[in-house]
Write the structure tokens for this entry.
Amino acid sequence: QVQLVESGGGLVQAGASLRLSCAASGRTNDILTMAWYRQAPGNEREFVATMRWIGDTTGYADSVKGRFTISRDNGKNTVFLQMNSQKPEDTAIYYCRVLRIGENIHWGQGTQVTVSS
């Protein structure tokens, strides 16, 4: 199993920045990707950004391209989401997701991000 601990959420004004962190522990030696998703009230959970653990290839949702950056600290099995130029529509619970070999998926508990206008 993999345990995920997210942190860094909060309340900010539009235009401000936040950095989310997700630390993975447990069976981390077969991670394929780590990603961020978000879910706003009344909406389905949606993809935000992803990073392959081998090769560091990244991908982003169109709504966050150019504003959000996903990165990682190899030594600590931690992935970050740097969120700049935030908009009120970025308000959501942000979830970290790990995909391991064998289609094993693990989710974090989520961290609330609120952007006021």
Notes: The CA atoms of residues 23 and 78 lie 4 Å apart. The mean pLDDT is 95. The longest strand covers residues 18-26.
